[in-house]
Amino acid sequence: MLVSQEIVLPCGLRLPNRLVKAAMAESMAPAPTHEPNGKMLLAYKEWAEGGWGMLLTGNVQVSEKYLGGPMDVLSSSSSSSDVQKLWKEWASACQENGTPTVVQLNHPGRQSPLGAGKRGFFTKNLAPSAVKLNFGSSLLAGVVSSLIFGAPKAMTEDDISLAIDQFVAGARQSFEAGFKGVELHGAHGYLLAQFLSPKTNLRTDDFGGTPAKRAEIVLRIIRRVRQATSKDFCIGIKLNSVDASSNNSMADTIQQIGLIVEAGIDFLEISGGSYEDPKMAAQPDANPSTPTKEVKQSTVQREAFFLSFAQTIRANFPKVVLIVSGGFRTRLGMEAALESGGCDLIGLARPAAVLPRLPKEIILNENIKDEDASVRLKPVFLPKVYSYLNWLMPVKIMGGGYTSVYYAGQIQRMGDGLKPVDARL
Ligand SMILES: Cc1cc2nc3c(=O)[nH]c(=O)nc-3n(C[C@H](O)[C@H](O)[C@H](O)COP(=O)(O)O)c2cc1C
């Protein structure tokens, strides 16, 4: 099986197999400290038992003023020895069976909802340019955009320098705690994705105006993180495929990825979607197809949301270690994706929230036949009242947001010492 083969990243980090638990915000670190805590450790100990090739943590926010959600972990709240002790315990829990773990670092930019972060009611969100979120043309969509997120403030150069410093501080904290690396969240419409995209970055200074300048903030973070850590510390990045939410052309995206690769990354994770267009939350099992030994390319493409984009990136950057996340549910689909050369690693999020030991128990378990090695999940539907409201006044984020809340609830069950609800079809 290709999926069970070891891989070594450019920094020297050895992953025992190709299955990566993708980042999922746990929503378990309450204000005011937003520190890792005992419940989170319990959840991560479950994944540590699972036989994964690598764990990616849920997104850790780098700015205490701007969180992605009110219960996110925060990296820079304090660097006191008590806090660092908690971080070390977290790193040890994840890696107690040797599974390398990488912390995902994020700044939400304009996607920080009201109440998530230490800021005044009238303090605006930050973004490369003052471009408001657009959830559709309904009245409710307008209200959500204006009241929950508001019109962002275009960042000054000082704001940008501070954000870079905050990412570096987060990387340093992760490094000192014993994590094996960091992944910069440059996907799903958060701050770094906002900089990369011409739709949200209208700047004409050093940080906008051309594809290269739009990538400048990312390049500076990568170089500074490398300086602040070590050559064997893993630096990855999660980026969106070319889609309507980024508005980038393929040529511009390839140019940006070229610069990012040159700056020195150890892996590139491909995803897609944003709050305005939550493709990453699509539910592949709403229309399941039965896997067969001869998995056709079209079936694999349907199962793996972003594989064809990854194949284009592979053609341009043959040596980059690629993770594709989104939609994988069957061993056969995973094998076919690896075989196609489109990716080296398979990212799995929702299946990992339902079955934390999925690699050991199913995908890598040679006693389970290929045809049976799958994890089909029941689609999560909005409760009737919201679904009616969404039909009446569509808000693009609603369905995807509800799916995330459902799966974060499964992680929270793990934190309470319970099993996740087995929501397999
Ligand atoms: C509860 C939940 C929280 C998530 N949080 C994050 C996150 O913090 N960072 C991130 O990059 N993606 C996040 N995602 C997206 C996943 O990493 C993944 O890209 C997406 O769910 C598609 O993969 P899947 O089909 O295997 O679930 C989250 C998804 C879920 C369900």
Automatic annotation (TrEMBL):
Domain of life, source organism: Eukaryota
Domain NADH:flavin oxidoreductase/NADH oxidase N-terminal as annotated: residue spans: 14-362
MF term (GO), any: FMN binding
InterPro entries listed in its UniProt record: Aldolase_TIM, NADH_flavin_oxidoreductase, OxRdtase_FMN_N
Keyword Flavoprotein (UniProt): yes
Keyword vocabulary terms for this entry: Flavoprotein, FMN, Oxidoreductase
Annotated family: Belongs to the NADH:flavin oxidoreductase/NADH oxidase family.
The name this protein goes by in its record: NADH:flavin oxidoreductase/NADH oxidase-like protein
Source organism of this protein record: Hyaloscypha hepaticicola
